[in-house]
Amino acid sequence: MFILTIDGKETEGAYSVTDDDGQKILFMFQHEDDAIRYAMMLEENGFPEMHILEIEDSVMIKTCESHGYQYTLITPNDIVIPPDVEYDFI
Questions:
Q1: How many Cβ atoms sit within 10 Å of the Cβ of residue 24?
Q2: pTM of this structure
Q3: How many CA atoms lie within 13 A of 67 on its CB side?
Q4: pLDDT tens-digit map of 20-64
């Protein structure tokens, strides 16, 4: 699995989106190519340069669940487009 972070600030948090209820949702990509494409779209929208970080999915899921964070797994069959909002990290 892969998550997005700001390049040079990998230990400060991961990219997330905020849903309509104000909940932050961590995007975890199954394939690195999909994470790269999403990062490129973010950067085209004015986000800082992004870093793709490979993670152990079970560890990240347990971390999210223990801290009450929402998450979603982005598969190759999913189409995700960055929302037109300020960036956010959890």
A1: 16
A2: 0.86
A3: 14
A4: 888 889 999 999 999 999 999 999 888 889 999 999 989 999 999
